Amino acid sequence: MTQEGADLEARLEEQEAFEPPESFVEQANVTDSGIHEEFEENWPDCWERAADLLSWDEAYDTVLDDGDAPFYEWFTGGELNASYNCLDRHVEDGAADEAAIEWIGELGETRSYTYDELLTEVNEFAATLRSLGVGEDDVVTLYMPMIPELPVAMLACARIGAPHSVVFAGFSADALATRMNSADSEYLVTCDGYYRRGDALDHISKTNEGLAGVEHEVSDVVVVDRLGDDLEHSLAANQHDYDDLVADYEGETVEPVSRDAEDMLFLMYTSGTTGQPKGVKHTTGGYLAYTAWTSRAVLDIEADDTYWCSADIGWITGHSYIVYGPLALGTTSVMYEGTPDYPEKDRLWEIVENYEVDIFYTAPTAIRAFMKWGKEYPEKHDLSSLRLLGTVGEPINPRAWKWYYKHIGNEACPIVDTWWQTETGGMMITTLPGINTMKPGSAGPPLPGIDARVVTASGEEVSAGEAGYVTVDKPWPGMLRTLYNNDERFINEYWQEYSDEETDEWVYFPEDGAKVDDDGYITILGRVDDVINVSGHRLGTMEIESAVVGVDGIAEAAVVGGDHEVKGEAVYVYAIPEDGYDADAELEERAIEGVLDSIGPIAKPEEVLFTPELPKTRSGKIMRRLLEDIASGNELGNTSTLRNPEVVDDIAAQVEDD
Ligand code: WT7
């Protein structure tokens, strides 16, 4: 390294604050530093700024209706259609030939959809769904990987007012069945398979296995043929080939259905404390306004940008920031089917260069992998088209932040570290890239209009430097409205902790721990419930535990997250074999299979450790903290409060052996 290079590294290493680059500020969508105050003063009417980004069929009469809190309603009386907002209006405004989606297949094929072409496909598939009998408010499950038919199906559902429920393609057959059962979903769109690192994966067998577990009658299944001759498969009587069906509706148009602002746009299942996933309900007006607004203010998206979020559409990040937010703004959204290291570790940078990507949004786990692979991969490519970088999903360590800033952004792109959740619909805590100083490792202040605080267990705001819990005191348009068919659980999960029902003061509790500094910047410390974050994916330890305990020969199990260099956290299983079973490799294999079958490869345990007992307190509670420390290789604290302190040494010794 040259002296100059070394000096630069050293400076970056120590620097704790970064100003937004001047070149960025000059062109930023939001540059008015008074925006936080302005939103505070005009709350909740400030949110009209978000609603104004949309085209309404019927104007709303009320910005916020808090009459039945915490069942808040936004933009009530208003009517709109999400697919119209993401497609037709851009075509009508002269952007028919602008690219809407640039899709890149793993094997190198590409498909480019202009707004006009995407609208045509969405119209045809909307007509197809209708012909199958899908009506307004029927939940359509989409069990699909990153192929263009996924956003097409989402927007087709939105067009006819049928909420979609996307199930991440990596989830297991069981997970599909659980979600279809919970949503009473009678329609499914899926595919025969897809490619991963060049291999053709069978998805239809997994789909069929899942369908066997659906308790109600499934009317129709539409199957996209992604693999052609690479996979032989047959279709059951109620299963139809996507292309065959759509061929009958070529050129058909479907009038977008005017939906009430509060009508459901989609359901998204996410993990919680108990074994049962939660069906988070998002609505048409508030969600779309909020994702459009945050896409504009935080990601700085403009219509003529090429924007790329590398998430999977099967998660909320892809819903909000590959599909709805970016398309509502009429930009070009890049969609990549494959993995970042296939065929080579420079795949993403090759795409950035080829498509002249302006804005790139990814997860810290990916950045840590890029760091590990080395700077030579991005250095092979011209990344000078980039203007803004973003991260989401988990805390980013300052070292990874600085690497991203230097080696991907060339110190010329601001980084937004965006904290939010499936439930919040869109970003909540982040710097505004044209205004706020960036502090690596800290997400930043709450967005304008977002009343997030860090409080003690009893709800008092913590002083700077102290740790506490994140709460949000005021509602926001993108918030979940309830858990599907389960208002009671909605209240219990999110509102019980800090609200005062007597005085009708409702406080949202996201179940994250955090610290705040003198400037009001919030550093997220991680979940405080039994949810772990593996590579930016949220997994319930209880879900994994019940999968392990469901395995023959396992009596009891505890699942915790342990630190992992690339994944952030990894899954560690501690299990007690049943009498008569050996704690051997076969049992371990079956425990892992159990997790793969009930959830999927994302939840694959890093290690399964057998132990005759789990460390328990005198009152019989499993000491998870301790197990986490063992998994993470941390110093173990005081174990004297345990009923059975001797098991700790036993387990720790096993970990060292491995
Ligand atoms: C949990 C939500 C938001 C889309 C992806 C994950 C963690 C999210 C950050 C961030 C630190 C973060 C939180 C949150 N998280 N973003 N920028 N810094 N932690 O959505 O699956 O609903 O998970 O992800 O712990 O509660 P999700």
UniProtKB/TrEMBL annotation:
UniProt-listed GO biological process terms = acetyl-CoA biosynthetic process from acetate; carbon fixation by 3-hydroxypropionate cycle
Q: Which SUPFAM superfamilies match?
A: Acetyl-CoA synthetase-like
Note the superkingdom of the native organism.
Archaea
**What region holds the AMP-binding enzyme C-terminal domain?**
543-621
Q: Where is the AMP-dependent synthetase/ligase domain?
A: 94-476
Keywords, sorted A to Z = ATP-binding, Ligase, Nucleotide-binding
* Chain positions covered by the region annotation Disordered: 1-23, 634-658
The UniProt GO MF terms for this protein read: 3-hydroxypropionyl-CoA synthetase activity; acetate-CoA ligase activity; AMP binding; ATP binding
Pfam families hit by this protein: ACAS_N, AMP-binding, AMP-binding_C
Asked if the keyword Nucleotide-binding belongs to this entry, the reply reads yes
Q: What EC designation does it have?
A: 6.2.1.1
Q: Extract the InterPro entries matched here.
A: Ac_CoA_lig (IPR011904), ACAS_N (IPR032387), AMP-bd_C (IPR025110), AMP-bd_C_sf (IPR045851), AMP-binding_CS (IPR020845), AMP-dep_synth/lig_dom (IPR000873), ANL_N_sf (IPR042099)
Q: Where does the record place the Acetyl-coenzyme A synthetase N-terminal domain?
A: 36-86
Task: Please state what class of enzyme this protein is.
Answer: ligase
Which family does the UniProt entry place this protein in?
Belongs to the ATP-dependent AMP-binding enzyme family.
Task: Please give the PANTHER family that the UniProt record associates with this protein.
Answer: ACETYL-COENZYME A SYNTHETASE, ACETYL-COENZYME A SYNTHETASE 1
Q: What is this protein called?
A: Acetate--CoA ligase
Q: Which organism is it from?
A: Natrialba chahannaoensis JCM 10990
